[in-house]
Amino acid sequence: MRASNENPYSRFCEDEMILRDFLALDRTILANERTLLSYTRTAMAFVITGVTFIKFFGSVALTIVGWLFIPLGIAILAWGIIRYKKIHHRIHAINTVPPSERPVYKTGGPV
């Protein structure tokens, strides 16, 4: 089992990466950005739903639910930003490790 603070991308050496690896890295970066946008969209939906419940319905129960949805939406946005930054730093750690300190893996054969 991997330690939680170990970078899962540290096993890649930029000098040994081929085009397919660079394209996979680009897809990973774009997927991370897409995930952040999904968190943002979900958070906005919760906040807008909360405001709608507060402003347009006279029921006390729906007003309480509306007031609960707003902080929940803010919490979802905060969680999404935290996750985005965490994954962003892991992905970009590949380029920040000097080549002399990168592990070298032999190619070919079973891993």
Number of helical elements: 2
> Based on DSSP secondary structure assignment, what is the total number of beta strands?
0
Helix content: 55-70%
Helix-strand topology string = HH
How far apart the termini lie comes to 16 Å
Described by the principal axes of the CA atoms, the overall outline is rod-shaped
Task: Please give the radius of gyration in angstroms.
Answer: 21 Å
Average pLDDT reading:
80
Number of separate structural domains: 1
Low-confidence residue ranges: none
Strand content: under 5%
Secondary structure category: mainly alpha
The largest pleated sheet is described as: none
Write the layout of secondary structure elements.
Blueprint: H1 19-56, H2 60-96
Helix pairs in contact: 1-2
